[in-house]
Specification:
This protein has helices at about 15-25, 40-45, 95-105, 120-130; strands at about 5-10, 50-60, 60-70, 75-85, 110-115. The chain is of the alpha+beta class. The protein binds coenzyme A.
């Protein structure tokens, strides 16, 4: 069965590919100390699909896009990351990932989606704006290693 470009839930076998792509998307770097997810974290989230929605898109064996979202509460889903490999951007992969997320959230009666957008990334800000996301207050990333 041909599954190129189809959005599906992530499986354990996808983890190394998610790590590889995620670590290569420079827009995900929020600060000096923050890191992309670890293998263990992804494994844990994939095992808890009620609390976490991890979606993937492949072309053959190559992961070209993914989305990680967390269910924060009964009404609220936080889209933590959505990323498409640079050379595949602008081909509606990001839109398809969001649409799949919406269909999962609809079944759970979750009606509020929130994401973080880098102020300097004009293309990404347009992506959210064109899909009906409004910008709220601007925050500073505050962090501490404990
Ligand atoms: C945001 C992102 C996921 C969109 O994925 P995509 O597959 O290119 O999205 P689509 O093809 O469905 O939509 C394209 C829209 O995204 C925006 N966009 C952002 N960067 C783009 C790029 N390099 N190429 C083309 N479109 C881009 C444009 O607004 C474009 O709108 P248009 O089609 O009217 O020109 C992708 O650009 C990406 O991975 N960005 C870096 C990671 C990031 O900042 N993620 C969001 C915060 S976690």
């Amino acid at each position: 069965m041909k599954t190129d470009g189809v959005v599906r839930r992530a499986k354990k076998n996808d983890i190394s590919r998610i790590l590889f792509l995620g670590r290569n998307i420079k827009e995900f770097i929020s600060s000096r100390q923050s890191k992309f997810y670890s293998k263990d974290e992804l494994e844990d989230w994939i095992h808890k699909p009620k609390d976490n929605i991890i979606l993937t898109v492949f072309i053959g064996n190559k992961l070209i896009g993914f989305l990680c979202a967390k269910i924060i509460s009964k009404h609220w889903c936080m889209i933590d990351t959505i990323g498409v490999e640079q050379r595949y951007r602008g081909q509606k992969i990001g839109s398809k990932l969001l649409e799949k997320l919406y269909s999962i959230l609809e079944k759970k009666n979750i009606y509020y989606a929130q994401a973080f957008g880098g102020l300097k990334h004009k293309g990404t800000r347009k992506f959210w704006k064109d899909r009906g996301f409004q910008e709220g207050k601007k925050f500073v990333w505050i962090e501490k290693n404990l």
